[in-house]
Amino acid sequence: AQKVTQAQTEISVVEKEDVTLDCVYETRDTTYYLFWYKQPPSGELVFLIRRNSFDEQNEISGRYSWNFQKSTSSFNFTITASQVVDSAVYFCALSEAGSGGSNYKLTFGKGTLLTVNP
Amino acid sequence: GAVVSQHPSWVICKSGTSVKIECRSLDFQATTMFWYRQFPKQSLMLMATSNEGSKATYEQGVEKDKFLINHASLTLSTLTVTSAHPEDSSFYICSADGQGGLAGGLGETQYFGPGTRLLVL
After folding, report:
1. Which of B51, B99, B114 sits opposite A43 (nearest CB)?
2. How far apart are alpha carbons B42 and B10 in whole angstroms?
3. Predicted confidence (pLDDT) per residue in A14-66, tens digit
4. Chain B closest CA to A35's CA: distance in Å?
């Protein structure tokens, strides 16, 4: 069975600090996808990144970066120079590749509430 | 690209009535759509997987006769909460599989609608 653990329930930082959100996953599949989504107070889930299990390259997108390490089954997310607008709940999620890529399911972690204070 | 809309964004209804929520993929075709519910300060719980033109697949513990799902086209899925009760009050979110129709590696990625807040009195 798949499982995603986000051990940090809540994190509070001051603006301009760097912050890392941890994500550890469990799966028996060799092919899978990892995701991060942002859920601001409005409720909509915003897609941030997808990474497949064969691509361990780290990725940087502006102030966001992701560190994928299969050896430790982790897919951590770092926000550099945090801003108040980064305040949200962040979800890490895992899916199997599925047959033809359809009908796969997302397994979500419990989410990390990030509060960035001015 | 990959925009999903939901309607209504919020609804208040009396106990015993039925409520229909629409989920549309605006700029891509979605063979598969998913319905989730989320209680305050909790994670998303998958309710059902909806494939165009076929019956939805419900997760264990989700009453299919209470939560009716119809996926009649590649851009529209509906969730009807029948005979709603106060315990059905929740945030309902749909997502669409971006595999169909668009280039750029959208496959195997779920794009979410803005959600519908349901309050049953």
Report:
1. B114
2. 19
3. 999 999 999 999 998 888 889 999 999 999 999 999 888 888 888 899 999 99
4. 8
Q: Helix, strand or coil for residue B86?
A: helix
Residue A76 near residue A21, CB atoms below 8 Å:
yes
Do B97 and A102 count as a contact with CB atoms less than 8 A apart? yes
Token readout for A53 is 């299990």
Over residues B46-58, the pLDDT tens digits come to: 999 988 888 899 9
Integer-rounded Cα radius of gyration of chain A: 14
Residue B47 tokens read as 């309710």
Whether A35 and B109 lie within 8 Å, measured CB to CB: yes
Q: Which residues does chain A have within 8 Å of residue B109's beta carbon, measured at their own beta carbons? A: 33, 35, 47, 50
d(CA B56, CA A95): 19
